[in-house]
Design brief:
- The complex is a heterotrimer.
- The radius of gyration of chain B is 24 Å and the shape is globular.
- Helices cover 46% and strands 15% of the residues of chain B.
- Chain B has 12 helices and 11 strands.
- In chain B, strands 1, 2, 3, 4, 10 and 11 form a 6-stranded mixed sheet that branches. In chain B, strands 7-6-8-5-9 form a 5-stranded mixed sheet, covered by helices on one side.
- In chain B, strand 1 (52-56), helix 2 and strand 2 (76-80) form a beta-alpha-beta unit.
- By secondary structure, chain B is α/β, with parallel strands linked by helices.
- Chain B starts with a helix and ends with a helix.
- Chain B has helices at 2-44, 61-72, 83-92, 107-115, 131-136, 191-202, 205-217, 226-234, 245-253, 282-295, 298-307, 341-358, and strands at 52-56, 76-80, 101-105, 143-150, 153-157, 180-183, 221-223, 240-243, 259-262, 267-276, 336-337.
- Chain C is mainly α.
- Chain C has 2 domains: 89-274 and 286-307 and 319-368, MetI-like fold (Orthogonal Bundle), CATH 1.10.3720.10; 370-433 and 468-603, MetI-like (MetI-like fold, Orthogonal Bundle), CATH 1.10.3720.10.
- Chain C has 29 helices and no strands.
- Classes of the chains: A alpha+beta, B alpha/beta, C mainly alpha.
- The A-B interface holds A 125-126, 128-129, 132-133, 142, 146, 150, 162-163 and B 1-3, 5-6, 9.
């Protein structure tokens, strides 16, 4: 039941460009490593932390593993690092087998570096020595190591704090030292364990940009875990989404955003709201946003009828290929795809403004729909009053239908009958959830 | 600053290494020093010298073993303690004995070990016993007497006691309430023979227990050893002590001219003796025999008589040609009784336990 | 149907297969067990079994079954039990319980007062009192008892100085004196427990009570339950310490003909006739008497813990005492410390300086250094000190390293049931009196099977060393658990990930971070071992007397001159080593090391 995405390995263009930029003290590494994870399973006692995960990471990729806490992302990262052993399955770094049943290359022999959630700076060493200590494996002369450590600190803007001890630095500064430490050794693989999550919001943005730019400059393959979808979308070349130890979707940020494979991914990556709908017709697929990277044209669209309480209008949304007529499902709306104005005949749904939050360039609205459900984070340039009636329009590219199964049974698994892009992802346990959704459909 | 602290990291490592090395060295040193006896023990089985383990409660044991080691080159490992703990240790080690010979006061101890088959039998050094010696040598040759003292007599402070008790029963008089002290037989070697002697002379165990119970009601003060009881006497805590004759005579010689010794009828003969561990390796048994012969040689006797001049050196010799130290009264002038070591040895555990629970 | 953009691999079947294979089944538990058996686990289990569980088990089993070790003929008998429940042993046991109960209550009261004064008021000399508590913690009970004895016994220091004080002699040489010394010895345990509670008890609790209109009495009543766990702890620890103390029962109590349980055990294995069955029963009594209160306390703590010890707690205000109260309080604390430390030390020092001390009723009371001159020329003097130093240094080093292992294993996250078992074993062993442990060693390491296996340790220094390590291991491990659980796992992981092997990672990260704590642990172990009595007394190999045994033997044989001089020199040496090591750390340790763990280290 796992997604394996082997054929995207040639996405190096951005990275290669950055790496050839030259003059930077960040050594462009020509040793970016690939990772190949097969059927990786990890149990802690009776608890399954990783459940048969397959994942390929091409050299130079910035992969973000996204998932809620307990989804296994941290375990996956730690098995790559070699801090945890695998119960089953295997991990190769480049072509070297590093973890498998009976094989465990210790972390220090894997040639990687890591940035930790809690910084993990050695408290008895200065910032400078924290960086240079991690450089020891490079077997540089003392002076060279010292110089390089200083250069790295300079690169993260902390050269003047070289002599400070970690507890004399702010959280953001500590994490930048940790970043310098991870980059200094010039390894082909850098792991990030929620590096921003213990920082204040305003520091986060700044450091995120540094991480994105510096790691791409150095060209190493990066695996970055987070539970914050905005962070994931902002950083990633590719995103892997984990739930309960399983990799439920793996693709580019755009793929994940536009075509989440199931309700979990959809909700976890941010939706404004959900409305049930029934497929009334297949629309022709026509190019929309285009672009080579993202052939939108290949995403099929269908016409769906909204429920009676919403006015029963038909709208067009993205849907899995081959979805049959009359099939019921749930339509998800990304916040960016919802537009609000005064209600008129063309509005897809009418609702009442529940909350208006000023957010600088406009307003974020919460709109209550006739059935009592909500659309949240709906952007509008104009202000509305609380309690005001509004009409809502849904954009096709930011709305998608996830079909409910017709019959709930162990062998009928969502999407597998269609083989479409959204297929085959819901874990068997989610059958119950889907059933509930079907019952709630109020046609 | 940077180079400075980098240096400190380095020296930190050096410190760790140095400390590690030092500890390793110390560990090896310790292991070496403690394992050397066992090493040489292994060597001993092939004809070399093994350390002779001497368990002794004698005041002169240290000088005597040193002299022996010097004279013969045989290494001696001395465990000097009171008789009780030593015998206990031997019992505890029964499975796996460590001792080579035991040198304490009291034939009863040896009789008891002998009846458990723990002593080398039928061996006697080639010496010329005097009459005391001849009486003290057991029939089965399981232990060898090295000297004779009296298990207990009475020593008193004449500045506080004007009409000293002359018989054992005198001690029950109320005038001595809280003024009499003695030793604990479970710790002090000579004291069990003293208690056994009292019982013997009074007609049996029950009579003896009766006497001791009354003595206890009269405020008997029980200390661990001769030294403790004497100390109590010297500091005035008690005025009369029933302890080993050698300790009593020694105390009178120590400069406190007020102390006087009285020998009530009867006093019990207490041979000091050596028993050899039957389970010891042959080499060690041979060395133990050499030790016995050395102790009974004129050189050995000289050391015994000078090793503890205020205590155990004050014994009556058991071989011809050695005279007792001048402070000792002639043996013939004393009302001496001898108790049967085998009869009384078998009762030692029971009587000591009774004493611990009822008197001490 | 449109072609899929996403190449999919749907192999539900395979996944199902995997699930089935990994389902709980035959051999899975065994595999998991094997996985856990890494080196450190083996070290930990080995150490616990070899050092503590087997020897003590071998000893205790003899209480009912003397046959296995040739100490009797029956496989099961209650004879020893009934013998132990009579005569002197029974009295010793009831004496011990009575004394320990009294001690724990008095120590609690005194310690609470002291802790409150030091932590919550401006009483004078707070630093000195803290130092005094540490000195008291390191002071062995037998030396304290000796000090009182030197001072008060007939022909003792006071009499020689012309102050007979015989009423005090009769008071101190008896249960009251025993309680006095044990109370002072237990004081630090109670004090540190209560101090932690007071420090953790933030001002906000008092404020909250006052804000809601409570008067002083009601405030105390409201706040007191928060301290309840500390009160249990204090009582339990002091009770357990007093029950298992050997120093006082071996000296003062024994001299006063006041039998106590630990001495009863010692006498049962050391005097003639020996009775290992009775000793083992006494061992059971002692272990239970110490373990039960500690278990109750651990249980009581589990639910409530020191939840008040949160980072958010505000440091409480110090109460400004009125001048008269301030001086009064200071005077009271001074008296306490004079009784606890001053008098015994004065007793020992004065005795060591008196000419012919302890030899008869000498009238002269000239002060002289003759005792030290005599001591320094005696072979009985230097060798015990050197030996004890060597053994203590080794004990402290091995003990701390092993304890670090244990603490790490127990406190590492995802700790298994097995780790909890180890923790329980350690907690139980903390209640194990040294004398029971040592008695166990006599057996376990003198069995013929031990000889056959080449473990011929009986009556050797390595066995004594093992005994020392076993005595310190449980408490050290549990002491280190706190600090080590504060060392974030990621520090080590960062080291590993950045290319350093496991040993180097430990040396480079854990050791520096814990350096101060480890140093204190080392020093504490060193000092405690240097003057340790029960294990030394039972396990010392002939001819190799540790200093504690030498002091007691010399004193027991009235070689007061050397004995008192040895006491004083040993104490000076002990505190000297502590001072030197602390100074050396300050001078030589890298700056980074010194920045960490100051507070934890001192606590």
């Amino acid at each position: 039941m796992q997604l394996r995405s082997p054929a995207f390995g040639k996405l190096k263009s951005k990275v290669e460009l950055a790496a050839s930029a030259g003059a930077s003290p960040v050594e462009a590494s020509d040793n970016a490593q690939s990772i190949s994870i097969r059927a990786a399973t990890k149990r802690f006692g009776d608890q399954v932390a990783l459940d048969s995960v397959d994942l390929e990471v091409a050299p130079g990729t910035f992969l973000v593993l996204l998932g809620p806490s307990g989804s296994g992302k941290s375990t996956l990262l730690r098995t790559i690092a070699g801090i945890e052993t695998l119960t089953k399955g295997s991990i190769h770094i480049d072509d070297k087998l590093v973890s498998a049943d009976g094989t465990h290359i210790p972390p220090d022999k894997r040639g990687l570096s890591m940035v930790f959630q809690d910084f993990a700076l050695w408290p008895h060493l200065t910032a400078h020595h924290n960086v240079s200590f991690a450089l020891k494996r490079r077997k540089l002369s003392k002076e060279a190591a010292s110089t390089r450590a200083l250069e790295m600190l300079d690169r993260v803007g902390l050269a003047h704090f070289a002599g400070k001890y970690p507890n004399e630095l702010s959280g953001g500064e500590q994490q930048r030292v940790a970043l310098a430490r991870a980059l200094a050794a010039g390894t082909g693989l850098i792991l990030f364990d929620e590096p921003l999550s213990s920082l204040d919001a305003d520091r986060r943005e700044q450091l995120r940009i540094e991480i994105a730019s510096l790691t791409r400059e150095c060209g190493a393959t990066s695996v970055y875990i987070t539970h914050d979808q905005a962070e994931a979308f902002a950083l990633a070349d590719r995103i892997g989404i984990l739930k309960e130890g399983k990799l439920v979707q793996h693709g580019t940020p755009e793929e994940i955003y536009r075509c989440p494979s199931n309700e979990f991914v959809a909700r976890f990556t941010g939706v404004a709201g959900e409305i049930p709908g029934v497929v009334t017709g297949e629309l022709e697929t026509r190019p929309e946003h285009g672009g080579d990277d993202w052939p939108m044209s290949s995403i099929p669209s269908v016409a769906v009828r909204l429920p009676a309480w919403a006015g029963g209008k038909a709208i067009s949304v993205a849907a899995p290929a081959g979805i049959p007529m009359g099939r019921a499902g749930t339509i998800f709306f990304r916040p960016a795809g919802c537009m609000v104005s005064s209600p008129d005949e063309s509005s897809h749904v009418n609702g009442i403004v529940l909350d208006v939050a000023f957010c600088g360039r406009g307003y974020e609205l919460a709109v209550r729909m006739p059935d009592g459900s909500m659309l949240t984070k709906v952007f509008s340039e104009n202000s509305f009053k609380r309690g005001e009636n509004v009409g809502v329009w849904f954009e096709r590219t930011s709305s998608f239908l996830l079909p409910a199964t017709e019959a709930i049974g162990p062998d009928v698994i969502l999407g597998s009958a269609f083989g479409g892009p959204f297929g085959g992802l819901a874990p068997p346990e989610s059958g119950g959830v889907i059933a509930a959704t079907v019952e709630e459909l109020a046609f | 600053m940077n180079s400075g602290s980098s240096k400190s990291t380095c020296s930190g490592r050096r410190n760790v290494v140095t400390v590690g090395l030092a500890l390793a060295a110390a560990g090896i040193g310790l292991a070496a020093c403690s394992s050397s006896p066992s090493n040489s023990a292994t060597a001993g089985t092939t004809g070399g010298k093994v350390p002779l383990v001497v368990y002794s409660a004698q005041g002169y044991d240290k000088v005597e073993t040193q002299a022996f080691q010097q004279a013969t080159g045989i290494p001696v490992q001395l465990d000097d303690d009171s008789t009780g703990p030593l015998v206990t240790k031997i019992q505890a080690e029964k499975n796996n004995p460590k001792w080579g010979l035991l040198w304490v006061d009291g034939a009863t101890v040896f009789a008891s070990l002998d009846s458990q088959g723990m002593l080398v039998k039928n061996w006697e050094p080639s010496v010329s016993w005097d009459s005391t010696g001849q009486q003290s040598v057991p029939k089965d040759g399981s232990y060898i007497p090295t000297g004779l003292t009296m298990a207990c007599a009475i020593v008193y402070d004449s500045s506080k006691v004007t009409n000293p008790p002359t018989t054992w029963n005198d001690l029950l008089q109320p005038q001595w309430k809280n003024e009499i002290g003695m030793n604990d037989p479970s710790v002090s070697g000579p004291t069990y023979p003293c208690v056994a002697g009292l019982m013997n002379s009074m007609g049996g165990v029950n009579q003896g227990e009766n006497f001791l119970t009354q003595l206890q009601s009269n405020g008997l003060d029980v200390h661990e050893t001769n030294g403790d009881t004497l100390q109590a006497l010297e500091v005035g805590q008690i005025h009369i002590a029933m302890i080993q004759s050698s300790a009593e005579i020694g105390a009178t010689l120590k400069g406190n001219s007020n102390l006087k010794v009285e020998y009530p009828t009867p006093v019990t003969a207490l041979p000091s003796a050596i028993g050899i561990d039957a389970k010891a390796p042959a080499t060690e048994i041979a060395e133990a025999k050499k030790f016995v012969s050395f102790v009974l040689s004129s050189q050995g006797q000289q050391v015994m008589q000078s090793g503890d001049p205020h205590g155990d050196s004050l014994y009556w010799p058991v071989i011809n040609g050695v005279s007792p130290l001048p402070a000792l009264p002639p043996l013939g002038s004393l009302p001496v009784q001898t108790i049967d070591p085998y009869t009384w040895g078998s009762r030692e555990a029971t009587i000591n336990t009774w004493f611990t629970n009822n008197i001490a | 149907m449109a072609q899929s953009t996403y190449p999919l691999t749907l192999d539900t079947g395979q996944t199902g297969e995997t699930h089935r294979k990994s389902a709980p089944g035959f051999g899975r538990g065994a595999v998991r067990l094997l996985r856990r058996f890494n080196l450190s686990t083996v070290v930990v289990i080995g150490a616990l079994l070899f050092l503590i569980i087997l020897p003590v088990g071998a000893f205790l089993i003899q209480g009912v079954s003397p046959r296995p070790f040739s100490q009797g003929t029956s496989w099961f008998t209650l004879g020893s039990l009934s013998q132990a429940l009579s005569g002197a042993t029974l009295r010793g046991f009831t004496d011990s319980i009575g004394v320990s109960a009294a001690t724990s209550i008095i120590a609690f009261v005194l310690a609470t007062g002291l802790a409150w004064l030091v932590s919550r008021t401006n009483v004078f000399g707070r630093r000195i009192w803290t130092l005094g508590i540490w000195a008291l913690l390191l002071m062995p009970t037998y030396l304290m008892a000796n000090g009182w004895q030197y001072l008060l016994e007939p022909a003792g220091v006071m009499q020689r100085l012309g102050l007979p004080l015989s009423f005090l002699y009769h008071l101190v040489f008896g249960p009251a004196g025993v309680v006095l010394v044990l109370t002072m010895a237990g004081l630090p345990f109670a004090y540190l427990t209560m101090l932690a509670a007071f420090n953790g008890l933030g001002q906000e609790f008092e404020d909250a009570a006052k804000v809601h209109g409570a008067n002083r009495y009601q405030t105390v009543k409201a706040v007191l339950p928060i301290l309840a766990p500390a009160v249990y702890s204090s009582l339990a620890i002091v009770f357990a310490e007093s029950m298992s103390d050997f120093g006082v029962s071996f000296t003062l109590a024994h001299q006063s003909h006041f039998p106590m349980a630990t001495f009863g055990l010692f006498a049962a294995i050391d005097t003639n006739p020996s009775n290992f069955g009775v000793a083992a029963i006494l061992g059971w009594f002692l272990v239970l008497a110490a373990a039960i209160p500690i278990a109750i306390q651990a249980r009581a703590l589990r639910g409530r813990s020191y939840a008040v010890l949160s980072g958010r707690t505000r440091t409480p205000k110090r109460k400004e005492l009125a001048p008269r109260a301030r001086w009064g309080a200071t005077a009271c604390v001074s008296v306490l410390f004079i009784v606890a430390l001053g008098i015994p030390i004065f007793g020992a020092v004065a005795a060591s300086l008196l000419n012919n001390f302890g030899v008869g009723m000498s009238a002269s009371h000239a002060f002289t250094l003759a005792n030290y001159r005599q001591a320094l020329t005696s072979s009985n003097f230097l060798s015990p000190i050197l030996l004890s130093n060597r053994l203590s240094a080794l004990t402290a080093t091995f003990g701390v390293v092993l304890a670090l292992f244990m603490a790490k294993m127990i406190s590492s996250k995802g700790s298994s049931r097995f780790a909890k078992l180890v923790d329980l074993a350690l907690l139980g062993s903390m209640a194990l009196p040294g004398i029971v442990l040592a008695a166990g060693y006599i057996f376990a390491f003198n069995l013929p099977i031990a000889s056959k296996l080449g473990v011929d340790f009986y009556e050797t220094l390595p066995l004594l060393l093992m005994g020392y390590i076993a005595t310190v291991l449980p408490s050290q491990s549990r002491l280190l658990m706190g600090p080590i659980s504060q060392v974030k796992e990621s520090l080590l992981e960062a080291c590993r990930v950045h290319g350093h092997g496991i040993v180097k990672s430990w040396i480079k990260t854990v050791l520096p971070v814990l350096s101060r704590v480890l140093m204190w642990g080392w020093l504490y172990t060193f000092a405690k071992t240097l003057v340790e009595l029960p294990v030394s007394q039972i396990l010392y190999p002939p001819g190799n007397e540790p200093v504690s045994v030498a002091i007691e033997n010399l004193t027991g044989n009235y070689h007061y001159a050397i004995g008192t001089a040895l006491t004083v020199v040993t104490l000076i040496e002990m505190f000297g080593v502590i001072g030197i090591v602390l100074l050396a750390f300050r001078i030589f340790a890298p700056k980074g090391w010194q920045r960490i763990g100051g507070v934890t280290g001192a606590a």
